[in-house]
From TrEMBL:
MF terms in GO: protein heterodimerization activity
InterPro entries: Histone-fold
Protein name: Uncharacterized protein
SUPFAM superfamilies given in the database record: Histone-fold (SSF47113)
């Protein structure tokens, strides 16, 4: 008998293909956080008169989201929807069509005076004084700080 494929070595016994509920929740939080930040960055881009979301827009959106994520009224429902969509739905993935812009504009702050634009224009001041209070905030702040937006 030379076929030992039915035997396990014990090496993989500690590693599971199953994602725990805690991991599912963490993945949902990160996706929800990023989704909200990207929506804000896209709105800010439009208010700034540009048609391309730039790394600086994304970084500012992530910074702002750090301050408002836990204050969103529907955050629990949003995260549950994300969790169900990722881990419980068996639906096909949506196709995302991305086009490379012919010309990439330089970053410029929005001259719009709405609350969102004023906040995004000044987010770096608030960010400098922000002290994370949880492990997740520490990790996210470190990641956001390591992003390399274009120099203004």
């Amino acid at each position: 008998m030379t076929d030992f494929t039915f035997m396990k070595t014990g090496h993989d016994n500690l590693i599971s293909d199953e994602i725990t509920e805690e991991q599912q929740n963490m993945i949902s939080i990160i996706i929800g956080f990023t989704e909200n930040a990207m929506k804000t960055a896209a709105k800010y881009t439009i208010h700034a008169g540009r048609n391309v979301v730039l790394p600086e827009d994304i970084q500012r959106g992530l910074m702002l989201e750090m301050f408002i994520f836990n204050k969103r009224e529907n955050i629990v429902e949003q995260l549950e929807d994300i969790r169900q969509e990722i881990f419980e739905d068996s639906s096909d993935d949506e196709e995302i069509i991305m086009e490379d812009p012919e010309v990439i504009p330089e970053f410029c702050e929005s001259s719009c005076n709405c609350v969102m634009c004023n906040t995004m224009n000044n987010i770096r001041n608030a960010w400098q004084n922000f002290t994370p209070t949880s492990r997740l905030e520490i990790l996210l702040k470190d990641y956001i700080n390591r992003m390399n937006p274009p120099e203004n």
